[in-house]
Specification:
Layout (H helix, E strand, L loop, with lengths): L6 E5 L3 H13 L3 E5 L2 H10 L4 E5 L7 H11 L5 E5 L4 H9 L4 E4 L4 H16 L10 E3 L2 E4 L4 E4 L2 E3 L3 H12 L5 E2 H9 L9 H14 L7 E4 L3 E4 L3
Parallel strand pairs: 1-2, 1-3, 3-4, 4-5
Antiparallel strand pairs: 6-7, 7-8, 8-9, 10-12, 11-12
Helix pairs in contact: 2-3, 4-8, 6-8
Amino acid sequence: MPDKKLSILLVEDEENLHEALKLNLELEGYEVSSAYDGPQALKAVQNEYFDLIILDVMLPEMDGIAVTETVRISNNEVPILILSARNSSADRVLGLKKGADDYLTKPFYMKELILRVHALLKRNQSAPRDHEIDNVVAGDIIINQGQKKVTRQNTEVVLTPREYQVLLRLVQAKGELVSKKSLVEEIWGSSFDANTNTIEVYINFLRKKIDKPFGKDSIKTKIGFGYYFDDK
């Protein structure tokens, strides 16, 4: 029996772009389902399983940011790649903060989109299963890898998938420096632009959630080199 095709939900209301994206994704061997507005996208996610969502920001009735936020309430696993004509740092930060895994600005090269799709799907498919992994403990932080759940001082800290991955990578380094380049390549993939401020954005998110509420300063920066986790 042939392997089941990986499924992608494509949410884009611009017809010509939608058809071009769908054709190129299908040529790559993916099974592509279509939605053209926010409510259609949410209905599709409720009724079907998808390995990836590609989501435009400017959608009729409900924009892509609101769709992302709603999806994350009930589904914290499916990777979401946002497409947007908005290219400011603030827009990128908002998309990532609401739960997107990647943010690609229009116009873009189709090859770059395909590379990002490959990277997101590869990481999601290679994620270890619950029975293969143990809890990670660093000081008063416990990371349950099976449930992707983080607690500090016995209080659950709700993280987005990418925040969780960045924290886990830093904690697993056991105090050793992790370079920005390593974080980008391991979490976003080698096709991701390491010159953006995405890593800085996520480090800031984590400090606000993991450190500040607990009076801690565990996530450290070594300017020009990278980051490390100090659980002392």
